[in-house]
Amino acid sequence: MQVINYFEIGKKEHWLSQIKKCDWRAGAYLCELLTGGTFFEKVGDGSRVLLLTEGEKLVAFCTYAKMDEIQPTELYPWLGFVYTFPEYRGHRYAGLLFKEAERLAKEEGKIALYVSTDHIGLYEKYGFAFREEAQSIYGESARVYEKKLK
Known about the structure:
It is built from four helices and seven strands, in the order βαααβββαβββ. By secondary structure, it is an alpha+beta fold. Helix 4 links the parallel strand 4 (78-84) and strand 5 (112-117). The two termini are 25 Å apart.
């Protein structure tokens, strides 16, 4: 398995077609941002789409971003669009993406990593702790989790 950055690889159309196979509406929205050229406008310059691959297959993906659905906020960086394809679930593969995001955050001198979600019990497995309830840009309540970086 290998973690790659969508913006630093060739075959973008191949990886985009793999993301499109996702059965989650947020995955479709991510594809829309990538194909419409509005990804950086929505999530901030320097953001990344991290892909966990096995050969030519996409196992999981997420974003490492300056902005997420909780705005305005001083919190940064954010994990977003976290998705593992059904046939790969239950093996903690998302953790490989999270480790890469943690590495990037440390490289930038950040002391924590954040995620906004409605899931309870998922991110805790990876060392995230509940921080607060916040309102998303969509007007919905979201749980904000934080992982302190060592």
